[in-house]
# Entry
Amino acid sequence: MKSIKKILLSELIINDTIFLPKDSLQYPWQWIANIDYFFKDMQSSKSSFENVVIDESNGPVFISESASIEPFTIINGPVFIGENCLIKSHSNISNSIINHSCKIKGEIHTSIFQPFSNKAHEGFIGHSFIGSWVNLGAGTTTSNLKNNYSDVSIRWDESLISTNSIFFGSIIGDHVKTSIGTNLNTGTVIEMGSNIVSQSFPPRHIPCFSFFYKGKLSKIKFDDFKKTAEASMKRRNVDFSSYVDKFLVVYKKD
# Structure
């Protein structure tokens, strides 16, 4: 479980509530492979938005009352969209969980977004887990299927582990930023606090608090990370100061 502590700083949030992982659902690739589990007791909200297509034929669609769905969006259940989310025009969302206070645009398929994350532009996110306070630059896209259709493996707890699925995209930790046009290969793991600037595939494993630029990895100074995180969280009226020590512990261990 060392790796999960480098991805998420706080509790796992599913459908806007804390989820305590079960033995069979300990890891992000298991959450994605069994995403239907999180909808088994859910009822559709029967929401209606002008010029928005909501298809419940494959599962419920729950949209919180405070969420905003812009026109010309397609939502194919099962889907959960949490409190204070904004789904921008021309988005296509299916089989996914978007927790509270996220801003989303583009195509989202079989993915889980933790609270306060932004993907505000075009791009495809598939079979992926996105932590909190992530900002995905315009055009950021995940590959979720290998060209040879073999099972996707990921680097986890210093070992290469098979997801036992041909479909898996990326695991992106808290406070990760990607630049415009970022492309992520199948099975990419980006640990918390990292910044990715690349128009070609970066490595499939990026350690905590890393800056990837021009094909090279360097470590972000903690004060620089803190400054960016403070600015990001202030925009949502959240005080970073109570989180500093927790992040510093991870930073020193990495």
Notes: The chain has one domain: 3-253. DSSP finds three helices and 26 strands in the chain. The chain has a mean pLDDT of 96.
